[in-house]
Amino acid sequence: MSPHLSPPSRSARPGEAGIDVAAALAAWVAGVDRLALFGASRGGAQVAAARQLAIYLAHVALGYELTRLAAAFGRDRATLRHALRRIEDERDDPAFDRQLTGLEAILMPLRRERVTVGGRCR
């Protein structure tokens, strides 16, 4: 099954579709199965890198809080902070930065579509 046609993950609860979109995009870029990003095991280096990218995109481009991302990806907040630092460090490479800027641009319309209900993004 292709990464963007996989069945919904455990993160696909109401209001968290953006997490799945970020994961699908990161999995597509890395050439891995989207569901592997939500697995309990670390997976191979490609899966781990794709997961870090998905976490970064969901947090930075879509504005998801680390607590929600930790629950969705089954990781603790320290692991998420490590992922964010790693991707930020990689942005020093101009080619990577251009690619990431393009991925963020793809996701930005989804951020604008999220609505606030009772003080919380849905």
UniProtKB/TrEMBL annotation:
Residues 18-87 form the Chromosomal replication initiator DnaA C-terminal domain. Gene3D superfamilies: 1.10.1750.10. Pfam families: Bac_DnaA_C (PF08299). CDD domains: Bac_DnaA_C (cd06571). One of its GO terms (biological process) is regulation of DNA replication. One of its GO terms (molecular function) is ATP binding. InterPro entries: DnaA_C, Trp_repressor/repl_initiator. This is Chromosomal replication initiator DnaA. It comes from Phreatobacter cathodiphilus.
